[in-house]
Amino acid sequence: MFRPIKTAALLIVTLLWLSGCAILRPSYTKPEISLANVEMLKANLWEQNFRLQLRVDNPNNRNLPIRGMHYQIYINDARLATGVTNQPFDVPAYGSEYFELNVRSNLWRHIADLVKMVERQQPVSYRIEGHIRTGFFLSPAITLQEKGTLDPANLSF
After folding, report:
1. Rounded to whole angstroms, how far apart are CA atoms 20 and 120?
2. Spatial CB neighbours of 135, under 8 Å, sequence gap ≥ 6
3. Which of 113, 123, 112 is nearest to 154 (CA)?
């Protein structure tokens, strides 16, 4: 006789708990991340140092705190860099924020082709893959899968 009441009570408590978790885990639209510039800092045969400037566009009506990132960056399908950063920053609501990453790579096989493309003013394609951690409590990682092209006139070699 009490079994249906206990089952119903357990079901109600479970539903309330799950709705509470949804309140703690706010939903938001995924930000857009694009590669704004690539600057070569230092190069030798075995290693190249680059400064990458990335732009994050926040389409949400509240600030987006970025607390960490794991990434892989490809230039013309050649992996430029893989790494992590814990450089925290906030992207304002409906706004954009730029941040820079200093990365090391070994592109000695591809660097001559990239320099030639820039000299000929040919567009350079890029792809960013990875995960972003936000400052939201219990929030999942945001998966990154962005691609685009860079205008050679804006690249610094």
Report:
1. 57
2. 65, 66, 67, 88
3. 123
Q: Is 125 helix (H, G, I), strand (E, B) or coil?
A: strand
**What DSSP designation does 113 have?**
H
**Distance, CA of 98 to CA of 53 (rounded, Å):** 7
Q: Can you read off the two tokens belonging to residue 135?
A: 């400052």
Structure tokens at 73: 């960056």
The pLDDT tens digits for 24-37 are 555 667 888 887 88
Beta bridge pairs of residue 60: none
Residue with tokens 């079994």: 3
Residue entry with tokens 């680059």: 50
Considering the domain 27-154 in this protein, what is its CATH number?
Answer: 2.60.40.1820
Residue ranges with strand state E in 3-60: 32-43, 48-57
- pLDDT for 29 equals 79
Neighbours of 52 (CB within 10 A): 21
100 pLDDT exceeds 50? yes
What is the pLDDT averaged over residues 14-18? 61
DSSP 126-157: EEEEEEEEESSTTPPPEEEEEEEEE-GGG-B-
Query: What ranges do the domains of the chain cover?
Result: 27-154
